[in-house]
Design a protein that fits this description.
6 helices, 126 residues, elongated, two-stranded antiparallel sheet, 7 strands, alpha+beta
């Protein structure tokens, strides 16, 4: 399942934020603030094949996908997070997956009414 085209998704979020932003702000300020929550999917996803338990914690062997448009639209971006890291590790022997996500900050729905971050893990897990 492909998310809405990321451009359409971003425009819809931007319009909702401009209309419902609780404090008086200009559209430029709102756009600037939201832009900080856009992450490149190719850089955020860390792939790795794990042979031993030590490999899980080693920084070696990590690579990034070349393309993620099948999951995150033509712009290959994920909205709603700062400092996003998605780990998708596979055991080398059985290809058993391990999927986790961490981030430094998530878009605040109390400030940006009706704005929600992309639901990343189910998209990747499917």
């Amino acid at each position: 399942a492909v998310l809405l085209s990321n451009q359409v998704h971003f425009i819809l979020i931007f319009l909702c934020c401009c209309i419902s932003f609780k404090r008086k702000r200009t559209m430029e300020e709102a756009a600037r603030a939201l832009r900080d929550y856009v992450c490149g999917a190719n850089e955020a996803i860390h792939l790795k094949f794990v042979k031993t338990s030590e490999d899980v914690f080693s920084g070696e062997g990590v690579f990034h996908p070349e393309f993620t448009h099948q999951l995150f639209g033509d712009n290959e971006v994920i909205f709603g997070y700062r400092g996003l890291e998605i780990e998708l590790y596979y055991s080398a022997a059985r290809l058993t997956p391990y999927l986790s996500m961490k981030f430094t900050e998530q878009v605040d729905s109390s400030v940006w009414k009706d704005v929600k971050p992309d639901d990343v893990l189910p998209v990747i897990a499917d």
